Amino acid sequence: EIIKSIESGTPRSVIVYQYGVSRSTLCDWMRNHGSKDYQAKQGGSDLTEIEKRSIVRQIEQGVLSPHAARKTHGMSGSTLNKWLKASLKENVELAVYDPFEMKDKAVDQPDLADPEKDALKKALEDAQLKISALNTLIDVAEEQFKIKIRKKAGARQS
Hints:
Blueprint: H1 2-7, H2 12-19, H3 23-33, H4 36-42, H5 49-60, H6 66-73, H7 77-90, H8 99-108, H9 114-145
């Protein structure tokens, strides 16, 4: 009866109050005895990869808070954290650099040999080419899907 009630949309807090059952017990019951459809909806597995990436990007850009994303898409915090960690691993090459850190390294090594300078120039060219390719990819995606992917510039209104 409790499981059917939760699957029909009754908030867990109401069930906890009515029956005196702990939240963790309810979670265990739903995980072990809930219908397959309910479990699929809870884990966010009904979302496509593109939708998952879109949610992660919105959180990373500050458009959507993690709490709002969880409530909107009916997922747990651990699921969202797993998506965010996976996104960080994917984008490790696109990490934001600290210009002060780069400046300190340049001061520490003022007399770089010519092969080292050439290697750094080559790495810079490769990075600029990659950024250009990614920007082109975003432009094509925005055009095809008719959505704005990039965050609008300007101050956030309070």
